[in-house]
Write a structure and sequence with these properties.
The chain is 49% helix and 5% strand. By secondary structure, it is mainly α. Helix 1 crosses helix 4 (78-85), helix 1 packs across helix 6 and helix 4 crosses helix 5.
Length: 146
């Protein structure tokens, strides 16, 4: 499990990257993705349906159905996905959970967390799915037709 994202969000990121490597408009089935990415079938199905409801994916039922990106990969950022699955509280909340934490009333790690939080936010909004898919080096992604 990631230090930053939930397991659900990790699986969403892996699946969207997988879909992004397919030729535009080509559908990816849940069955295909669960085999390639080793993600539980029903869990992935729920995640992909959530992303479809939020417009990040398109879904099509039937034997030739599956999932495709709901917007161009060059326009979709990590922020879009993380916001859709986990929310983006990590970019604004105190790491120690204090509701009143601020520069004026800081917790013991406020300054260090602020720097990390800002770096994470910049990564989320600046990393586009197209660029990440292109840079993907994991073996399970290498056999996808691009």
């Amino acid at each position: 499990m990631s230090l930053i994202f939930s397991r659900r969000c990790e699986y969403a990121l892996q699946a969207v990257l997988y879909i992004a490597l397919k030729p535009q408009g080509e559908m990816s089935s849940i069955k295909e993705m669960t085999k390639k990415l080793d993600i539980p079938y029903h869990f992935l199905g729920k995640i992909l349906q959530d992303l479809s409801r939020k417009g990040l994916l398109k879904s099509l039922k039937g034997p030739t159905g599956g999932f495709a990106l709901g917007m161009p990969a060059k326009d979709m950022t990590l922020f879009h996905l993380v916001e859709a699955i986990d929310g983006v509280e990590l970019t604004s909340k105190c790491v120690m959970g204090f509701p009143e934490c601020s520069g004026k009333n800081p917790c013991a790690v406020h300054e260090q967390w602020a720097d990390l939080r800002d770096g994470i936010y910049k990564m989320l909004v600046n990393k586009h799915i197209a660029e990440m898919a292109k840079d993907m080096k994991k073996p399970m992604y290498n056999s996808i037709s691009r």
